[in-house]
């Protein structure tokens, strides 16, 4: 039985808490949040009695074996380090940290303590992603030399901590781009990035004046606070010659939202967003293949359930996670390089 604490009980935490509660190998013993009202409310809702306002107190609790970190980005590294030093396994929401230095410090602590640290790259755990990985690993796409991904919201700045750079570390790139870059890089075989060229724009603000169109707002939404970018794009080159193009926005003068992830290999191609599809050729004919599975789209709740169950299995059985700390460090290096390139107007060599 794995005894777990969840640190940060804002909106994303339910996708950790509920899978823990439904996993028969887990006992959810503690919750932590700096917002006392929210903490009490969630404690009552989920039947958890140990409630901490300070994560330092929670990680000292000897009953707890592992923690999920669902806090603002600026506290991920600090809490992860404290938890591992206190002997806990860690599942930390993406991004791993706000800087490469922090990410390396987390990695160093993981090596020193030998504890498991799994980064919350949830899209790796989608049923459609797991199936596509099987096809890729069996050579169906051949050498993947190009990928492109877009996650463009025409109106979708969540506000709150997401739009406060001191807490988030950035806007759509660090919030949405982290998923787009990671899932492409993962499918491409995790080649080493060698250079990044990026652009970032702050032209539209959060557009809180827009009427008649609803969008997700963070619990602490404040229309007056927004110091993150609207849009970021980048091209990333890898050591093996492959390249990745990505663009992400919180707001854009676009006709509609756009989400796609496409991979191109020398034997075949694939799309994972908005739906799983494969492309190949047989007998001099191009074939578009639709796998016959329950859900060809990304199932948010099921992916989180898979992610949490994988974390639990790794903690209890000593298995390696498919999203280790080293991957979190590498993705952080890419994100930081994109922001640096956008700021300096120059290509960044890694």
Give the helices and strands, then pairings.
Layout (H helix, E strand, L loop, with lengths): L1 E6 L6 H9 L3 E7 L3 H11 L3 E3 L2 H6 L5 E4 L6 H10 L3 E5 L6 H14 L3 E4 L6 H11 L6 E9 L12 H4 L3 H16 L5 E9 L29 E8 L4 E7 L8 E8 L3 E5 L3 E6 L2 E5 L10 H18 L7 H20 L3 E2 L1
Parallel strand pairs: 1-2, 1-4, 2-3, 4-5, 5-6, 7-10
Antiparallel strand pairs: 7-11, 8-9, 8-15, 9-10, 11-12, 12-13, 13-14
Helix pairs in contact: 1-9, 4-5, 5-10
How would you describe this structure to a colleague?
This protein is of the alpha/beta class and about 350 residues long. It has helices at about 15-20, 35-45, 55-60, 75-85, 100-115, 125-135, 165-170, 170-185, 300-315, 325-345, and strands spanning about 1-5, 25-30, 50, 65-70, 90-95, 115-120, 145-150, 195-200, 230-240, 245-250, 260-265, 270-275, 275-280, 285-290, 350. The strands form 2 sheets. Strands 14-13-12-11-7-10-9-8-15 form a 9-stranded mixed beta sheet, covered by helices on one side. Helix 4 runs parallel beside helix 5 and helix 5 runs antiparallel to helix 10 (about 325-345). The radius of gyration is 20 Å and the shape is globular. The termini are far apart.
């Amino acid at each position: 039985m794995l005894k777990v604490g969840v640190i940060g009980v804002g909106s994303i935490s339910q996708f950790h808490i509920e899978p823990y509660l439904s996993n028969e190998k887990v006992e959810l013993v503690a919750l932590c949040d700096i917002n006392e009202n929210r903490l009490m409310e969630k404690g009552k809702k989920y039947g958890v009695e140990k409630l901490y306002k300070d994560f330092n107190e929670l990680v000292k609790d000897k009953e707890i074996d592992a923690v999920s970190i669902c806090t603002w980005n600026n506290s991920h590294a600090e809490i992860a380090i404290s938890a591992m030093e206190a002997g806990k396994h860690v599942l930390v929401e993406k991004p791993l940290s706000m800087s490469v230095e922090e990410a390396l410090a987390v990695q160093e602590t993981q090596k020193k303590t030998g504890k498991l640290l799994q980064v919350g790259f949830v899209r790796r755990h989608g049923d459609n992603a797991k199936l596509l990985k099987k096809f890729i690993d069996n050579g169906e796409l051949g050498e993947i030399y190009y990928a492109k991904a877009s996650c463009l919201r025409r109106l979708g700045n969540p506000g709150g901590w997401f739009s406060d750079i001191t807490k988030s570390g950035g806007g759509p790139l660090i919030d949405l781009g982290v998923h787009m870059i990671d899932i492409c890089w993962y499918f491409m075989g995790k080649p080493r990035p060698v250079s990044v060229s990026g652009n970032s724009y702050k032209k539209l603000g959060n557009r809180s004046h827009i009427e008649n169109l609803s969008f997700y707002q963070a619990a602490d939404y404040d229309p007056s606070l927004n110091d993150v970018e609207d849009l970021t794009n980048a091209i990333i080159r890898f050591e093996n010659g492959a390249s990745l193009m990505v663009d992400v926005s919180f707001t854009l003068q676009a006709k509609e939202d756009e989400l796609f992830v496409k991979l191109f290999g020398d034997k075949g191609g694939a799309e994972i967003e908005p739906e799983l599809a494969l492309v190949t050729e047989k007998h001099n004919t191009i074939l578009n293949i639709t796998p016959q599975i329950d859900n060809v789209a990304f199932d948010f709740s099921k992916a989180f359930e898979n992610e949490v169950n994988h974390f639990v299995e790794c903690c209890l059985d000593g298995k390696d996670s498919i999203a280790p700390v080293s991957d979190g460090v590498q993705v952080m290096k890419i994100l930081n390089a994109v922001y640096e390139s956008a700021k300096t107007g120059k290509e960044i060599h890694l």
